Amino acid sequence: MGRPRWIYWKQIFTTKFQANCTKAKIEDNWINGYEIGPMVEIRKLKDDRYVIRYTYDE
Which branch of life, at top level (predicted)? Predict the structure, then answer.
């Protein structure tokens, strides 16, 4: 297995707090399921905004 594939969330956030709220929602969606949840990361952009990305494995 190689490097993980990343999917980027469609929204760019102006604060890290907003990004953390969405990150928690993504992680919670997998807790009640049968699948292993994705790795979720918050990345800071050069203009001090934030984007969320998570892994996708087939």
Answer: Bacteria
Q: How far from chain centre, in Å, is Cα 22?
A: 8
Q: How far, in Å, CA of 35 to CA of 13, rounded? A: 27
SS3 string, 1-58, reads CCCCEEEEEEEEECCHHHHHHHHHHHHHHHHCCCCCCCCEEEEECCCCCEEEEEEECC
pTM: 0.75
> Which residue ranges make up each domain of the chain?
5-56
